[in-house]
Amino acid sequence: MKYEAYGYCEGGIARTEIPAKRYSDIKKAKSTCLFAVELEEKFALLIDNLAEFEFELLRLAQSNLLWNNSDHSQSMLERLCLDRRLVNLLTACRLYLDQTDHGISILFGKNSSELKDVKTFKNDLYDKHWGYRLMEALRNHAQHSGLPIHVIGYPMYLSQGKGPDYKEFTISPKTEVSRLIENSRLKKPIVNELESKGDTIDLRGPTREYLSCFVQLHDKLREMIQSRVENAQELYKRAVDEFGLINGQKVKFASLRELHDDQKTQGEVALVTHFFDYYDVLRKRNVVNKYLKLSMASNTDQKKVYNRYCSMPQKILSDELPGITRTP
Questions:
Q1: How remote is the C-alpha of 285 from its chain's centroid?
Q2: How many Å apart are CA 126 and CA 189, to the nearest integer?
Q3: What is the pLDDT of residue 323?
Q4: What is the pLDDT of residue 254?
Q5: How far is 269 from 84, CA to CA, in rounded Å?
Q6: Which residue range is the domain that position 280 belongs to?
Q7: Residue 247: what pLDDT?
Q8: Residue 188 falls within a domain, yes or no?
Q9: Please, what is the end-to-end C-alpha distance for the chain in angstroms?
Q10: Which of 23, 31, 159, 298 yields a CA-CA distance of 20 to 30 A from 101?
Q11: Is residue 176 situated within a structural domain?
Q12: Separation of alpha carbons 106 and 289, rounded Å
């Protein structure tokens, strides 16, 4: 095997031989950098799916406020739309869980303490958070048995504050416990827990709690790989600078490659840097609200009573009005 750096210059192609270890180190460094990018992409995919689910809830609530005389078939189409959003979200969550394990295994080794630490952290999230356990059960149900949302509710509330009372329109996607426990793949402890929750479970709170766990997990993974990624970035950037000049000639599109004895290319590492800016953009974008379960979006202009030391309402004053619940 032969290893070389090459690039395009005014006179054609400039090239120089490099040691095998140098090639291997730079290739590994770039792979580590790209793993960090892909980790941020997977988290962005996950959060974007949560946003789409939440946007759909707000859109349907506003539609019900304007046109609250929809028939059963329309309600079922709205339920199906929420099913699609939720299944997409659950799929993104599974992708994140599986592929982060795989990536940490490659980065640190399949028997590494880092991989064991990640798995322990995930298990702790599962044990401590009902929303995590429920949504994992729902993902299993959606994969093997049926859609996760069985009931769509249209509850309305009287919201009291300073001035006149407001009528608040909401959408409540629910799962039916009886349908879930028919799934023989569910673990017995989960079945027992489900049976203690009543006939139906509103999925808004558990979904937000579940995604709050992913925010914690992502912070954990970022911290775990930080020094490894920073070292890889430094090594890779030095290589980009070094091989921007080959045999005294400034080159464009510099690359490293591994060649067979017959000069056929076995592997290649393009020395590009565009992904660094993209990585920085993703890092900033992926700084999200850590308290999803205890947060809500609203466009109301009603004057509420707030605690002066906290941005959260001091007390929620509301009485439920008769609403509509529709099932298939």
A1: 12
A2: 12
A3: 44
A4: 97
A5: 39
A6: 20-244+273-297+304-326
A7: 93
A8: yes
A9: 65
A10: 23
A11: yes
A12: 30
Q: Return the pLDDT at 328.
A: 59
Helix or strand holding residue 267 (H, E): strand 265-270
* CA dist., res. 263 & res. 17, Å (int): 13
Which residues, 6 or more positions from 63, have their beta carbon under 8 angstroms from its beta carbon? 70, 78
Label each residue of 75-129 as H, E or C: HHHHHHHHHHHHHHHHHHHHHHHHHHHHHHHHHHCCCCHHHHHHHHHHHHHHHHC
The phi and psi torsions of 303 (rounded to 5 degrees) equal -80, 115
Cα 320 from chain centroid (whole Å): 34
Q: What is the pLDDT of residue 324?
A: 52
Q: Report, as ranges of residue numbers, the positions in the chain whose pLDDT lies below 50.
A: 308-323
Cα–Cα distances in Å, from 247 out to 7, 14, 180, 187, 251?
11, 7, 68, 64, 10
Residue 6, domain member (yes or no)? no
250: in domain:
no
d(CA 255, CA 274): 14
Specify the DSSP element, H or E, that contains 20: helix 20-66
* Model-wide pTM > 0.85: yes
pLDDT at residue 70, rounded to an integer = 78
